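Technical annex B. To support the medicinal chemistry partners, we prepared a structural model of the target in complex with CA2, based solely on the information shown next.
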Amino acid sequence: MKTVYILNGPNLNLLGTREPEVYGKTTLAEIEQSCRDFGAKHGLEIQFLQSNHEGQLIDWIQDAGKKSQGILINPGAYTHTSIAIRDALSAVHVPVIEIHLSNIHRREQFRHRSYVSQVATGVICGLGPAGYVLGLQAFAGLVSSER
Ligand code: CA2
């Protein structure tokens, strides 16, 4: 079975509990469930993880490089600040999809720059929780076309 790591960065554990006008009412647990449902139907094993810590995310990216066929990552605010996460993603030899719930290009200027996009295979943003499953759909194609 093919494995996809779905990594979530800082504060995404708060989804659905605060700022629903920006991020909606869906919780991260509900997003995880829809990813697991999709994975079960399409033969993907899902490793769904969230951390508020940069180093932990980097450790998981390195694990994913060894143990998975793809990474779907919402790096949260580290998107806009972390060269370390960018370098970790750059070092793995699996496709990477960057995802954001909100359209970062419609928001504050400081969110327009992503260090991750340059090393991502693709980027999904602004489509809310549905973006996660869309990312997995892309992976189902990307993964099977590469093996
Ligand atoms: O739109 C996205 O998915 C973001 O990655 C979310 C990050 C933000 O820093 C990025 O610019 C765009 C923030 C995640 C924080 O999520 C919260 C959820 C509820 C309440 C507070 C924060």
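Notes passed to the chemistry partners:
Residues 143-147 have pLDDT under 50 and may be disordered.
The first strand starts at residue 2 and ends at 8.
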